[in-house]
Amino acid sequence: MSIPSDDRDGRRRCRDCGEWKLLDDFCSSSKRPSRRGSYCKSCFNQRSKASYAKRVGETHGRSVKPARELPEGHRFCADCGSVKPVSDFPRNRSDSTGYATYCKPCHNARTRETKQRLYGGNREYHLRQRYGIGEKEFDELLAEQGGVCAICGGADPQHLDHDHRTGWVRGILCFNCNGGLGQFRDDQSRLAGAITYLRGTTWQRVLIHPGVYQMCSPTRGRPPSPRS
After folding, report:
1. What is the predicted pLDDT for the residue at 187?
2. Tens digits of per-residue pLDDT, 83-119?
3. SS3 letters for the chain?
4. Does the global pTM surpass 0.70?
5. Which Pfam families match (predicted)?
6. CATH 3.30.60, domain 74-119, yes or no
């Protein structure tokens, strides 16, 4: 005896489980007037999995592993073989769960291995991705500068400076000079204003006689208060 599957008050009876459910609980189907299929979504998914397992077995001669049963809010890491809370996994918008396949330690290890294999290390990867040059070009530019900061002349600068509008590399600076340009937003008028300010507020040491110097007052500002 067949189970009726006609619609009643916005509901339909699933042909597999036999339960009456809302039409929204059924998969879409263009062949029926209601645009809904004969099986509820849960039963349809079970049928799809069974069909896939059958095709894989017939075509490739192997069986499909059953879905892993996991506690709610947990995820399985295929690298370390551990079941961990989802908070231990990096975010991944492209995954349906919103989290990456591997836990954070395994994900980081894979990232380091990839950078080492493709770029020879993390620094080469960073330079290529952010500035479009590698360590070889970095060393060549530093040699052209004489091995010192392009602004203050300090030894062993390690910060690659670039134009934030065009992305073009400008030179290699020390930590302080690179940070200074960033704080002044690469604005020449701000830098010129800072120079004018320093000239007007810095006391000058002037030679008035051989071996004798005098501190001259700036145009504005005041001397420091005497210490008690």
Report:
1. 94
2. 999 999 999 999 888 999 999 999 999 999 999 999 9
3. CCCCCCCECCEEECCCCCCEEEHHHEEECCCCCCCEEEEEHHHHHHHHHHHHHHHHHHHHCCCCCCCCCCCCCEEECCCCCCEEEHHHCCECCCCCCCECCCCHHHHHHHHHHHHHHHHCCHHHHHHHHHHCCCHHHHHHHHHHCCCECCCCCCECCCEEEECCCCCCEEEEECHHHHHHHHHCCCCHHHHHHHHHHHHHHCCEEEEEECCEEEEECCCCCCCCCCCC
4. no
5. Endonuclease_7 (PF02945)
6. yes
